Amino acid sequence: MMRGVFCFRNDLRLHDNAALEHALKECDQLFLVYAFEDRYWLVKNPTRISIHRTKFILQSLECLQRQISGLGGILHFIHGNLEDALPKFMKEMGAECCFLSEENAFEEKSTERKLSQRVPVRLEYSRTLIHLNDLPFDLENLPETFSKFRKLVEKNWFIRSCIESPVQLFSDSNPSSTIPNLNNFGYQNKSKLGSKDYYLFRGGVSAGQHRVKEWIWEKRCISIYKKTRNYLSGSDFSSRFSPWLSNGCLSPREIYWEIKDYETKHGANESTYWLVFELLWRDFFHFFARLHGSKIFQPQGIHPERKSLTEPPNAEELFKDWKMGTTVNSFINANMNELRMTGWMSNRGRQNVASFLINDLGLEWRRGAQWFEEQLIDYDPCSNYGNWLYLSGFGNDPREKRYFNIKKQSEHYDPEGNYTREWTSSTLPVPD
Description:
alpha/beta; five-stranded parallel beta sheet; globular
């Protein structure tokens, strides 16, 4: 009789979950668990997970727990770093093997290696749109630029079908676990934005799939996405799928096949393609992170030959102004206020504030990347650090820097100043 443990990480779903499917096939009894790892949840000053992302993850776990319970199973919660907490849990349950969805980022890969030294580990890959084994080249030959990568994979690419959710899960005689709340992590559950928070992200598969249905099918926003994608305000100019993607409530393949179905029924155009294009960017950064490991967290990234930055003497003060939205530039302040107060910022905003930090303030890019890591609901180490490296000139851009003229950007994308006024108003609440 094979007893196993399946541990959820950034795959908080039952559907299209290859590792879970494998575990259910292999095991006569399977225990389901989620670990609140110390390296993420107990780090303070600065924290690694803001209140916004904490709330989203807890909501996602609540949704997952309901789904598991509805299929006759139990989701257990443990605390401690995976390589220590999971072997202990396995011993308590009499489990012989653990199953995980394989990750790409360096820290997560390190955890997998440490865990495999303690207990038998089975990994299944499903993190990207294109499966790692379906790339038309070896990972070591990953093209240096996204354009080359896209052209190679689009020549004759293969996207796997989605995996159905299980119809039943193993019963478990152990008592059910209680999900921690915001107070357990030092946060108070109170909303301050009210009507200004025009799009409330809610974690979980149900909310993510509702967003897909609403944005793609009901409102057909995908048909004009190429036109709206650089807007700053509103709820529908962007798909906003990324928080559910980064936490694994939605899978990239799931979104891809929804787009393909929509194109069959309503026609394909530049806009429907553009969302696939952005899924490919996400893939590129995931493969990039997997290939380069810890280099993506180093000051000079994958270009140690390029000149490193010397920060100004008042770097700490400049960085504080940047992250708190109190710089001399109101357009930058607006974007940073929105991030701090909601955990979200548009793609256009992210590029502008990154350029401003690097080029106008003369600060090291990692300051910004680490602040984004803490604040963003849709934080993903591969995309976050990949994008920051790209803009800093230490990543996949042949140019040594990408500079955005903030004055021209604000005039073009916020010509009436409505977005800037909305997020720099003197009536905005001061967050905790």
